[in-house]
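Table S2 (text version). Query chain:
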Amino acid sequence: MPLHISTAQRLAHTGEYYFSRKLREIDALNKAGANVINLGIGSPDMPPHPSVIAELNQQAQLPNTHAYQNYKGIPALRSAMADWYARFYGVSLDSEGEVMPLLGSKEGIMHICMTFLQEGDEALIPNPGYPTYRAAVQLSGATPVDYDLTADNHWLPDLKALAQQDLSRAKLMFVNYPHMPTGARADAAFFAELVAFAQAHNILLVHDNPYSFILNDQPASLLATPGAREVALELNSLSKSHNMAGWRVGMLVGRADLLQEVLRFKSNMDSGMFLPVQRAAVVALGLGEEWYAELNAHYRARRELVFDLLRAIGCTFDAQQTGLFMWAAIPAGFADGYALSDRILDAARVFITPGGIFGTNGDQFIRVSLCQPEAVLRASLDRIVSALHTSPANA
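Corresponding structure-token output:
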């Protein structure tokens, strides 16, 4: 007789990740012959620089590169991360204590929550925003509290309104600019206001910063803001900036004492990063501006095709948004982004992400990924135009 094992209470409010469920549905459609084009997930389809792959191959062939590694990463990787911050963000970091390599920045979100949050605490999370923030806060036992982002305020939080709330239990605040899913930027003036807000309310800022090099001419770090080092940690990643999503190379940077506390948790969760991956990441971080220029040339061309696709659907959007996705308001006639997404999937066999998965403030929006070749985006446009009997020209 099979055992009946109940799940832990911490999972009561944490469902399976939306894309995990949706990919199963798409897989079933494909097995039935549907040939669905997936424009939902932001997984870069282009490879890393050839020198990065060559370094991985070379290091993996050595006999002494396959052992467990230091939880803090090798000194060369921490130095490369610090140098990268100095070159592109103008931020000086001590590679010994202020840089912590991660197995992708997503794990860093969980590590931070498990390190600093517990039952009775609250954490401020953006609505709309990355769903993992909410899940990680809930798994820590703390309570997520939404703060609103709206188009009327350029997808920036109204800090004055937020300050009027009861923040006595708020211990941590997730922020993310360039913002996912809306592609909104934050300028230096807003970052200064954010730091002052955190100082006034004794709140730890966690800035999630993986999109700063994608379709963005001025990469910025919150840590460049005066006073930010006292109240903020920053997550970053090579997933988007270097086409290394599956390699799982991220970083957490900021105050050494806070990073040391995170290490107490992290060191109980993994056994370090594969050494050849660390060596390859050093090469990636040493690439010059020409790498980012070439990467963004591809994304600009793709963005134009996605603009045509959105016009064909009848959506409206900000043409200046950044990052790997395009965020767009749905046309009249659809109850929400889920309804539009289902309609496009059913009629055109193209999957587009409904904005509601990122929070209620995303209900009237959809998000389209740029992580498909131009030929696939053209095919998606053709399918949608055919299915909806419209065209970019008359939408």
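Notes on Table S2: The radius of gyration is 21 Å. The chain is about 40% helix and 15% strand.
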